Amino acid sequence: MSDNESTYPDPDVSEHFPESDHWIWAGTHRPPVPKPMAELMTRDRAPTSIDEPEHPAAAFTAQRRALTQASFPDRVLVIPTGGPTVRSNDTDYRFRPGSDFFWLTACDDVDGVLVIHPTSHVSVATLYLEGRRDASTHQFYSDDRYGELWVGPRRGLAEARHRWGIETAPLESLEKDLFAAGLDTVAVLRGFDGALDEMVPETDTDAALAAALAELRLTKDDYEIARLGEAVDLTILGFEDVVRALPTAVGKSERVVEGIFHLRARTGGNDVGYNTIAAAGAHATILHWMRNDGAIRPGELLLLDAGVEGHDLYTADVTRTMPISGTFTTEQREIYEIVLAAADAGIAAVRPGALFQDPHRAASAVLAQGLFDLGILKVGPDEAMRKELPLLYRYMPHGTSHMLGIDVHDCANARREMNKGGHLAAGYVLTVEPGLYFQPGDLSVPERYRGIGVRIEDDILVTERGSRNLSAALPRGPDEIESWMRSLWALPAPNLGL
After folding, report:
1. What are phi and psi for residue 210, nearest 5 degrees?
2. I want to staple 143 with a disulfide (CB 3.0 to 4.6 A). Which of 45, 139, 165, 425 is the partner?
3. Whole-prediction pTM value?
4. How far apart are the first and last CA of the chain?
5. CATH H-level superfamily of 58-131+153-217
6. CA 134 to chain centre
7. Are 187 and 205 in contact (CB under 8 A)?
């Protein structure tokens, strides 16, 4: 990539252009720009425009803003999206909008700020954005954050208003407008914009705003459910890509698996929704194995926990555990079938009105019974699941479910009584993902099971009468998985340069 500093013939332009009418200030923290340089870089350029239809989510985001406004009718609510995060020195990660901001706007512009006005205001909301930095200004080439020579054409305020269906205003007027409204009436979603956090005194309403947004996002509307379905469909294709490449990947690194899935995520969607877990062999017993640098060996299992994030930022989160050689060993199948039975029990417990913890309790009881039947646990499920000393925790040390949506662990700011300590409702989407993990050095299990890790994860929509498995099209049973792998291997192998 090119250096992200704009260049000048000489940064000390005052030496070459001492008269003030020969140079222009580029900004508070940037050197001035010689006028001849600005003229050279901006003249003889055709005007650009972005002609887009209104975003298909616009009607839904308007409803979401109205719900948010109704929760705080007398407050000015400020929801920023933030800017790029530094990866290293002067290199940023690819920008991803703030989740609450995006849920309320569908806007993917950097540094935007949404203001939701009190109910007495003439409009519900205003979106504050940076304006164009096209060839009508020297910032076209001198501003490497917004200049269109650096980042490409950007929507102007009128174009943004049309695209997102929200009133817009220049970002430079935000501070003045907030002071005019009275800072004592302002609540800010904190942690995204340091200048805003410093400008507006913190109050209890800030935390209440974060919680309210998370709780409103718990119930997915029709648009969100469709986007989650698309993300799951792309994820299934990514799993198929991995399986087709497995014979060629044997003997190589887990990064081959990660890279193949990432190719699907970037070509079909926006990105991966989280760091892919491509855990072969004993690495499958490490819950968050993301180094993905181990070897892929025949006869072992591959635990693939991965999800495509779609263009509207909704992500899938699916796990399958599959035999690298295409056939489960006797021991692998024994453990797999226990986990599958637990997953089925967990999914069966998902329904409106059920406790969030019900799928975990149902899945855990099956896991504990299975381990008791194998002789690994010496007591039955009731004893193994006691809160004081949950013996099952040694082999299943994580929860069975989390909410899913724009974030892979969605709605994390919701109050406990509305999320993990509450009840499920129609429109919620959650994972069900039990597992069993027998680390290689775990002397409490028979040697034949050591190094086996199995997790099965599906994305479940709570419906009015029960639930729907959004990822059910991806094979789950051991016989299905073996047949599925054989059918994919019968196709021409993809040319992946391996």
Report:
1. -60, -45
2. 139
3. 0.93
4. 26
5. Creatinase/prolidase N-terminal domain (3.40.350.10)
6. 31
7. yes
389-423 pLDDT tens trace: 899 999 999 999 999 999 999 999 999 999 999 99
Residue 395: exposed, middle, or buried by beta-carbon count in 10 A (0-12, 13-18, 19+)?
buried
Whether CATH 3.50.50.60 fits 222-489: no
Q: Where are the domain boundaries for CATH 3.90.230.10 in the chain? A: 222-489
CA distances, 400 to each of 58, 102, 347, 451, 456 (Å): 34, 28, 10, 21, 10
Q: What is the pLDDT of residues 143-178, one digit of tens each?
A: 888 999 999 998 999 999 999 999 999 999 999 999
Paired with 430 in beta bridges are: 403, 460
φ and ψ of 129, to 5 deg: -135, 155
329 Cβ contact partners less than 8 Å away, ≥ 6 residues apart: 299, 323
- Residue 84: closest CA among 217, 193, 187: 193
For residue 487, give every residue at least 6 positions away whose Cβ sits within 8 Å of its Cβ, in sequence order, or none: none
List, by residue range, all CATH 3.40.350.10 domains of the chain. 58-131+153-217
Q: What would the two tokens of residue 240 be?
A: 């198929």
DSSP H or E run through 309: strand 308-309
**CA-CA distance, 276 to 291, in Å (whole number)?**
9
Q: Does residue 221 contact residue 58 with C-beta atoms inside 8 Å?
A: no
How many residues appear in the chain?
A: 498
**Percent of residues, the chain, with pLDDT higher than 70:** 93
Question: CB-based contacts of 344: which residues, under 8 Å, 6+ apart?
Answer: none
Which residue is associated with the tokens 């662990």? 409
Longest dimension (CA), the chain: 88
Q: 370-387 in b/e burial notation, b at 16+ Cβ within 10 A? A: bbbeeebbeeebeebbee
Q: Torsion angle, CA of 223/225/227/228, rounded to 10 degrees?
A: 160
* Alpha carbon distances (Å) from 490 to 235, 236, 480, 485, 486: 21, 18, 15, 9, 6
- Residue numbers of the chain with a pLDDT score lower than 70: 1-31, 493-498
What span, in angstroms and rounded, lies between the C-alpha atoms of 437 and 455? Answer: 8
